[in-house]
Records
---
Amino acid sequence: DAKTTQPNSMESNEEEPVHLPCNHSTISGTDYIHWYRQLPSQGPEYVIHGLTSNVNNRMASLAIAEDRKSSTLILHRATLRDAAVYYCIPSYSGAGSYQLTFGKGTKLSVIP
Amino acid sequence: KAGVTQTPRYLIKTRGQQVTLSCSPISGHRSVSWYQQTPGQGLQFLFEYFSETQRNKGNFPGRFSGRQFSNSRSEMNVSTLELGDSALYLCASHLGPGGVREQFFGPGTRLTVL
């Protein structure tokens, strides 16, 4: 599994954009980059995933570096509900296994 | 549609006992994975099932076992409980093989071993 490096914690003001970085320098060419988040007292929740191109969905945007050694999750307007631990997870599903290897993630605090 | 259901939500056991946890995936989902979450080790993969077959297993002792039924519901069992087994056990479901799949997690079962 590719090793990931994320900041332990970040803070953001409510309604401002948040950029959550992730380094995954050992990622293989077939690994997708997944982001999940875990709100307090809940199970993890899927946020977004991508392979090479930048991706957008209703929750967030994912910007992937051209060399794929890093990516950034972008929350366009942070709300209090976005306070959670965010996990960046490179994962290959081609062999039929969907195991997710979680690191320590980034704890995002949102200030009202 | 209903999300992933895990029962029970909370459980207290004593050392040496065994425990069975249950997970009902989202309707139509055929793959179920189990994870253990502790403050020290974080989220760790236990095992993964698809169509009643274990496809992958994490680095846990043989005291941890699981199975999946024909209706895709899954159970995991921990025998001879140890204090270190106290954790939040999470179940995740997805449709099954066929590309990159979003996984849906349940709320977890909080197991306390005394």
---
Amino acid sequence: NAGVTQTPKFQVLKTGQSMTLQCAQDMNHNSMYWYRQDPGMGLRLIYYSASEGTTDKGEVPNGYNVSRLNKREFSLRLESAAPSQTSVYFCASSEIRGREQYFGPGTRLTVT
Amino acid sequence: DAKTTQPPSMDCAEGRAANLPCNHSTISGNEYVYWYRQIHSQGPQYIIHGLKNNETNEMASLIITEDRKSSTLILPHATLRDTAVYYCIVRDPTGTYKYIFGTGTRLKVLA
């Protein structure tokens, strides 16, 4: 099992560009999450999906949209990137909401 | 969810046990203690969790005091690969989605 995979690993964007971060899990988990981690700080939840077909805002949703494409895949979209969105983005999944989470390797995004 | 307090950093000699403390004095009856770690630049890794009994798995042991106001994560034989930031999180798994990752304890295992 690959666990949680994320693409791309690295990305550089110019201000105003858009992009989609992809996440997939092969553990048949119901819940999926997107976090961001800024230097020297803990993780902050952007959006989560408790189950297929549902999505909800986390602590810092502004500037982002998500799509739970199917049970396996949960994407994060930046419609108009800003320098404040420079961060490392982690996707995670759990069997059900509230259970222990398993994280992907992260996407390092720089917005210039 | 209850707040946690951890020391910012600790050192441990390779091969020795690493004991990482966590205070969670406001923990409520439904809240579990979870431990994760983050090795440099990687995604956080789940280690172990417990409610009130001590727990052990292939990675670590978790000791929770009888009053549940504090806990200790024990890595029995620390290796250089255990150098990481360790996060103690307290939450009710039936409650909100939130995991509050604080700043954790930076453990350095010394050769």
